[in-house]
Amino acid sequence: MRTFLRRILGSLATIGLVTTLVFFAIRLSHIDPLAALLGQGLASQAQAAEMRAALGLDRPLLQQYALFLSGLVRGDLGRSLFDGQPVARAIAQSMRFTAPLALSAWLLAIALGLTLGSLASRASAWEAGRPVRWLARLTGALLVLGTSTPVAWSGLLILWAAVPLLTGLHPGPVRDVAQLALPVLTLGIASGCSLGRVAEAGLARARREPFFIAARARGVGPLWRLEWSALRTTLAPVISMAGVEAAFLLGGTMVTETLFARPGVGRLLVESILRGDFPLVQAIVALMAAGYALFNLLADVLASSLDPRLREEAE
């Protein structure tokens, strides 16, 4: 319980630190969103001055920070500077598109990571034949390549390859699913390769353990049961990495939603940064920081419950 409370306090400290850094970074960036409104002819000088006073942008920086914290504690995220829409409503509307994308990519990453990691770990298995070892080494090289390739670059390659397939589709459910599959593949492959490398290392280590070698030599049980026994010993690091990748997907949507022109929280954040919509940027970053801390906390707790060694280290 004490360790769990420490992790909760650490997560809250992480959220507070990230939101504080973002708040001051935005304020010190010399971006004036009201100047953009003036440039577009959407407001006069007098209206801009009134808006600046109403938003508290003419107050000292520390006072603005105190107002921001008080609103955050009350759950009042403010309103968008450009359309006046409540920030919470704008984020909720965008989350309808981001949640299916992130969840689908995360599930794909887990399936892909465990499959490729299990195959790549057989490169050093003594019972594996030469074709299996070559295939395992090729899979390991693909995992390294997928991990080191930027998401934007892999997304461009997937988009370039899929354009001829999408051009002949008429608007409808089939095209909607196809358009969702592209960003899901982009995020799922990147996260799946990271998970696969963790699974590969854990499974390769488990296959060198005496219990696995002895069970394999005696011919105990079918092969899938032995593989499951090896996988169970590596679940803790895989679960921890799955939590990290779930948090990564929240930020990865910035790239994929912008690249594939999909609505969502990531694209909303990019647009808000470009036009200097302070309330939206602050709220979305705070949400991502909270999601990152929450996913990591849940992954650590679940990994500790599965691995007694982690519980002993925590105590």
Please tell me about this protein's structure.
This protein is mostly helical and 315 residues long. The protein has one domain (87-314): Orthogonal Bundle (MetI-like fold). The protein is 80% helix and 0% strand. It contains 14 helices and no strands. It has helices at 2-27, 33-39, 45-55, 61-74, 87-120, 130-148, 151-166, 173-207, 210-218, 223-232, 235-259, 265-275, 278-306, 308-314. α1 (2-27) packs antiparallel against α13, α2 packs antiparallel against α3 and α5 packs across α8 (173-207). The longest helix is centred in the middle third of the chain and has 35 residues, at 173-207. The chain is globular. The N and C termini lie close together (9 Å). 33% of the residues are buried. The mean pLDDT is 78.
Q: What gap, in angstroms, lies between the N and C termini?
A: 9 Å
Helix and strand succession?
HHHHHHHHHHHHHH
Give the name of the CATH architecture: Orthogonal Bundle
| Strand tally | 0
Mean pLDDT: 78
Shape: globular
**Structural class by SSE content:** mainly alpha
Any idea what the CATH superfamily is called? MetI-like
| CATH structural class | Mainly Alpha
Please, how many domains? 1
- What kind of sheet is the major sheet? none
DSSP strand (E) fraction? under 5%
- Segments where pLDDT lies below 50 for 5+ residues? none
User: What is the share of helical residues?
Assistant: over 70%
Given the structure, what is the number of helices?
14
CATH fold-level topology: MetI-like fold
How much is the radius of gyration in Å?
Answer: 24 Å
